[in-house]
Amino acid sequence: MSGLGSEIIGRKIIHLPEVDSTNEYAKLIALDEREGTVVVADRQTAGKGRKGRTWASPEGGLWMSVILKPKAEPKHLPTLVFIGALAVVDTLWKFGIEAGIKWPNDVWVNGRKICGVLTEGRIREFVILGIGLNVNNEVPEELRKIATSMREFLGREVSLSEAFHTLIRNLDHWYGLFLDRRYGEIISALKERSIVLGKEVKIIDDETELVGRAVDIDVDGALILETPKGRVRVLHGDVSLRFL
Hints:
This protein is an alpha+beta fold.
């Protein structure tokens, strides 16, 4: 048992005042570190989002990556992005912030993004689960219409240490379910916390756009869209989802 009250996540904490990207740092050390090692930085100079996007990461936010080494079939590994999002939602609720998940990897509060989750890795070697949560950091002026922070929502400073410890415990809980192969429970929780289901959305990938009503998330985490041509299954890969 770790001092954080968790079984696996957070057994070792690597704290860095500054790094280009906690995900990149974690990938470099992953093979030599035990599972559950967490890399957390006060600030990132080249924070990463999905599809190569940048992620503003000034001091005051929670920028962290977790080294995971699950013995699971590759088809189940995409579910790890959901346990990250679920852990963040549970953490925010502990602070009195009602949040929801915008499939596949964003956490939103009051119609604005507060957190992004990113998974990277090498099949059968490791997975890096990266989380960027806006806590007390200033949201850039150009993003204030679409992004928010815990401080802005609550109108007060939040203990970064308390947020971190709470998130670690929640991650440990959801990762335990993943290791126990309780994928159905994870997907059920994802659907309960979804802000996408029942909404008209547009799915955009590198080549096509698809418009439809989000009606379900299946056992593999794929989003089911009802379109004029029938139901379409959208995998949680390199796609973007926008509300209409």
